[in-house]
Amino acid sequence: MGAVPAAERRMHRRYPLSTGVDFYHGQSRRRFPGRCIDISAGGMLMYVPAATPLQPGHGLELDLGSIGRSEFTHLSERAVQATVVRVDRQAVLATGHLAVGVRFAQA
Predict the structure, then answer these.
(1) Which of 21, 27, 59, 66 has the fewest CB atoms in 10 Å of its CB?
(2) Do residues 85 and 103 lie in contact, with contact meaning Cβ atoms separated by under 8 Å?
């Protein structure tokens, strides 16, 4: 018998989206660049430089710029508050960047 896949915990469908992200990290009081990999109504996955000091629970203010998907254009209109929910340091080995999952704050 094969292994049973883990239950999907995501509430929203994810869409691939490759676009630049600029964000303010409150804990370090610095701005950092990133790259969106995929996005959903609840959050996104982005790659950030390996030395970026992110930890789960940290707050971010994201500037997403122009998003090419009509269902997410409202995220382009203003800075978006988000919380880091996952930092995958293993991605550094494959990509040279940290993979960071963030959850958008409720409007």
Answers:
(1) 66
(2) yes
